[in-house]
Structure formats: C-alpha cells, structure tokens
Write a structure and sequence with these properties.
Blueprint lengths: L9 E3 L8 E3 H9 L15 H11 L18 H14 L14 H8 L8 H6 L42 H4 L33 H8 L8 H7 L1
Antiparallel strand pairs: 1-2
Length: about 230
Amino acid sequence: MLTATGILRRISFPSFASTYSTTMEEMDEIRARSLLKHTYVYNPPDELDNIIVNAAKHHGLELDSSDWKITEIPLDNRKSKFLLDLGRSLKHLVPNSKLHKMKSLRDLFEFYEQPVNNITKYAELARNEKLPQNLAIMEQPRRFHPNDKTALHGGVTGNPGEGGTIYSIRNKRIYREFKPKKEWFDYDDQNFDYDVTLSKGMPWDPEIANKMDSYTNIRFTKEYLRKMR
C-alpha cells in the first residue's frame, strides 16, 4: 500500500499470506480491466520532442525547417510503421479511434504529452496526501473478517451465520473470503477455521491468475494466431 511518504510496499492479505501477494501497481492493473480505457500508466518523457524527431528522421520524414511540429505525416506505409515504432518505444500506442487525427507531428506531440493513468478520479483523490486534516477518504471498502481482532468490531459480526462470500472473479483476487459460523456447535469451537480453501484451477487461484495475466497485453492478430498453429 502507499504510506504517508508515498513508498510502495507489498500488500499481503492475512488469509492469502502464503499464496497471494501483490503490489499496488499490480492491483491497479487488475481493477482497471474492463472498467477503464487503459490498464497501464504512461508519463511523457522529458525529451519527448527529441524522441519524436529522431523517430521521424529514422522513417524518412522531411522535417520543416521553420518548425518541425508542422511537418505532415505522409499517408502511406511510413505512417503506420512510424506510429507503431514510436508507440512501442514509448510503450503507449495511438488508439485506432485517433489514428485519423495524427496528421502532423504537432498532433502526435500533443497526444504523447498527455499522461495516462489507470485509476479513477476517486482513487486519485483518496491517495492525495494534501487533503485537509478533517477529510478522510477510504479508497477501498473495508470488508469484515472475523480474524481482524484489532479492528473496531473486534471480529464480532452483526449478522451471525451470514456473509463472507465474494462473487466477483476480480474481487476474489483482491479481497478475503471467510467461512461464517452457521451451526450451533461452531460457536463453541474456540479454534474455528474461518479461512476458505482456494479452489484449485479456478480463475482466482493465484497460479491460474498469473498465467492469465501473462496474456493481457497480447494482441490476437492473424499473424499471432498463425504462429500459434
């Protein structure tokens, strides 16, 4: 989690301590899937203008002597190769919906000078360290768990025999589930095991989840599918 000094620490959930541990950056990528436009973070480099100019020269674009930004991008194969190589070097590709707007190097520069984030505005506000002292924002819901004895609830639920189940596949990888006491004899068991055994082979199994994560950035193009054959 992010501390008061902004240092990134490992987040380990007590019930998943031996099987699942992730960083805040990885958690943001998981939450951004299917919810936000980008799952990654992009910050424009300091020498963005030099990077664009060098890439343009490499692909044979003749820069305007008065102002390189007004140089038009030719509508031929050079445009696709130029934008693809530049996007790969900056790890931020121009989306299909904006390709037709990239008519000059100025358009390209204005696109790449805009930072990209993979968290919501609410999350940005919750992580802001300059909030007033009388304002506290909780970024994520604090789910009840009986093993949290140091919490205000002391591990005692107001709904005996209920709760503990997480239905979303995404949230199963983030939050802890627990097995509630349902039978009368469970309440006399001082060593009752609340932990839920992770289902082997299911999408929220860390081993399976890591395999799925390795495919998130692969574009299943015709060329890629041919290689898979």
